[in-house]
Amino acid sequence: MAQPPILSWEGLGLQQGGRRLLGGPDREDLDLHIGPRDRLALIGRNGVGKTTLFRLIEGRIEADRGIRKVKPGTRIVVLEQDPDLSGYTTLMDWALSGEHAPQPHEVEAIASQLGIDMTTATIGASGGERRRAAIARALAQDPDLLLMDEPTNHLDLSAIEWLESWLERYKGAFVVISHDRTFLKRLTRATLWLDRGIIRRKEVGFGGYEAWEAQVYAEEARTAEKLDARLKLEAHWLERGVTARRKRNQGRLEALHKMRAARAAMIDTSGQAKLRLAVEEDFKSKSVIVADKISKTYDDRTVIKPFSLRIQRGDRIGIVGANGAGKTTLLKMLTGELEPDSGTVEIARTLSGVMIDQQRSLMEPDITVRQVLAEGGDWIDVRGNRKHVQGYLKEFLFDPGIVDTKVGILSGGEKSRLLLAREFARKSNLLVLDEPTNDLDLETLDLLQEVIADYEGTVLIVSHDRDFLDRTVTLTLGLDGSGNVDIVAGGYEDWEAKRTRPIVGKARKEDKAPPAATPPPPKSAKLSYRDQRDYELLPSRIEELETAIRKGEAILSDPDLYASDPQKFANISKGVENARMEKDAAEERWLEIAEQVEG
Question: Cα separations (Å) of 522 from 536, 594, 596?
């Protein structure tokens, strides 16, 4: 029998700063239930109250109304986005503090896998070191409920994949706030959507969120039309621009795929830029950066082995790799900031660049938004076009009324968005983005994707956000840490498909999934009768289980079911959980046989 929730809020209502943040005067207060194995994505725009809801779940703050119930013995641990390390000498000193202080050896065991030295001083620790230390501290506390606020910020790809693997094996519940679409799609099984003071829950992972969101808004539009309140709703839609932006971005993705195909035709199998004779002169005339056999070595370690690349006007280049692999070094050499040890870099004289590198601290907290964008005036010059500052704010999803608000009271995500608005206004034909997605919500990421797609110049992006790279870049430079640089037409997924990784243990499900119809394995596989039968029949069984899970999740999505019929809720929950376990086992079994077939 399924267990009851380990934490719940009933009748939750909260007002902050004179406005209703959760619940509302014209709607019922909110109910929230978290089960012992929930994998929940918490979705909502910056400023809607996601972090506040975390604090309510944790019990750090009190609501105006409502009852918080926690199963006795439940250990709730928060992985904060920006933890306060002041007062502690080393990362380990901080990690061993708190209500559920873990043992040193437990922290070290996780820290060693994340590649972080816990004796590092807190003063001067980098964002990546602070993030890894926070993860080691949180996971070592053995939580029953883990609340994660942007867990992949400042992590490189290897650390993100390690965290995903740990969470796949984790036996407790978690709720996660993240802009990392790939992370959310791989791990979540249900979604909490915080929107205009309402918490909606649906038993689908983040992969089904956008379709659900569109359905909700379509239903609201129909209802509003019947109630003759369409103008009010349309104002909300205009502010958000969700559906229109996503439709436009679909068109941009199609254009991006065509650009990738054209770029792929210019690259040979060894990864060196190579022109077809018919387009050689035109290609050269459009080149803005030409790197010829450049390399870099630090302390007898070769960071970049001889590498050549011709970057064209309009290219969108993604640079990926683990921390320390040489991404920043390569970026600086390509932009002329750093001289290579060998080889040459030719940069077009007409190239004028803008660097966006997360330096929100450069914006003084006491100046206003108007001063940041328009030097205190009413108009801003946006790449040669004159726009009213309040209208320009709306393009970047701001309420125009914040124009005279001081920067210091903006959230981290709002500061990042304001920085983007300022830098994109400048006239340039080269845009350099260093981890641009940190602290941005999903809608701002959609906006950033749109702005990059419409940018007429060349773009260089250093990022660990796999989905964002897949949506924006035409060419990926992949650094494996040995000094080699792979040149791949496409995004992160294309680079991941190309690079060779050592197989450790069993194949991951997302790397290899059972096909809808499996052909008979070749005779050389020499499968037993049972293996061959499972290989042929398991894919259809997996499809049946997926259908059963979806049906069960649809029933469980009724927020009143648990209160009205707890036995039915328990039975269906148990059925869904059993189906998931059988599906996982079936997939593992199929993968084992597939490895034999392909081996």
Answer: 12, 11, 10
